[in-house]
Amino acid sequence: IRSVSRLSFANGALYSYQWLFNEVQSTQLTVFKSVDTGRTWKTLSSIDASTNISYADWSPNGRYFVTAFEDGSIVCSDDSCKTLRRIPSPTTNPIKRITVDNNGRITLGRVLESTLVSTVDDGITWTSEGLERYAPPYMVAVQFLDYMADGTLYFSFWTVGPDTLSRVLRRMPN
């Protein structure tokens, strides 16, 4: 690996990805794994990508991987990144943050819609996580989104209200 885009530690291994142009000028997402604290890296899988990556994340147990792109598309894996595949997305707008839990539940923060939505069936259906219970009734921008090993979702967001700008950290029990 020449450069690291994001590191994640799960089940005694380091995971990372690269997003690069290949020799024919198409975009490629490649996922890597290291079991010796980063001294050597093994390529797990690659997939053609349509645009820049917005965010990527691994589940706490390392089995699931999910990537969001600036065009709203989503790529995921449910086999520790041996294979990557596209799933239906609820948006064509940029996705600010995306995360996945130990059971494959994918949750994303949409930029323009100010919502958190989740899928448990590989993007066939998406359900609102009820951000309105945690955020004020005006524009929010999700900044942090991550599942813990116990299934609790932590997230933070900027709020922009009538005369306010604030950052809020919340937790959504599993």
Describe this structure in words.
- By secondary structure, the chain is mainly beta.
- Helix content is 0%, strand content 51%.
- The strands form 4 sheets. The chain has a 4-stranded antiparallel β-sheet, with no helix packed on it. Strands 5-6-7-8 form a 4-stranded antiparallel β-sheet, with no helix packed on it.
- Strand 14 (153-160) and strand 15 (165-172) form a beta hairpin.
- The mean pLDDT is 78.
Main β-sheet, in a few words? 4 strands, antiparallel
Mean pLDDT: 78
Gap between N and C termini: 36 Å
Name the helix and strand elements from N-terminus to C-terminus, one letter apiece: EEEEEEEEEEEEEEE
Provide a count of the helices: 0
The shape is globular
Tell me roughly what share of residues is in helical segments.
under 10%
Strand order of the biggest β-sheet: 1-2-3-4
Report the strand count.
Answer: 15
Structural class based on helices, strands and sheet pairing: mainly beta
pLDDT below 50 for ≥5 consecutive residues: which ranges?
A: none
Strand content: over 45%
Features:
15 strands; four-stranded antiparallel beta sheet; mainly beta; 174 residues; single chain; 51% strand
Summarize this, please?
It contains no helices and 15 strands.
What is the topology?
Layout: E1 7-10, E2 13-21, E3 27-34, E4 42-49, E5 53-58, E6 65-69, E7 74-77, E8 85-87, E9 95-100, E10 106-110, E11 115-119, E12 127-128, E13 140-147, E14 153-160, E15 165-172
Antiparallel strand pairs: 1-2, 2-3, 3-4, 5-6, 6-7, 7-8, 9-10, 10-11, 11-12, 13-14, 14-15
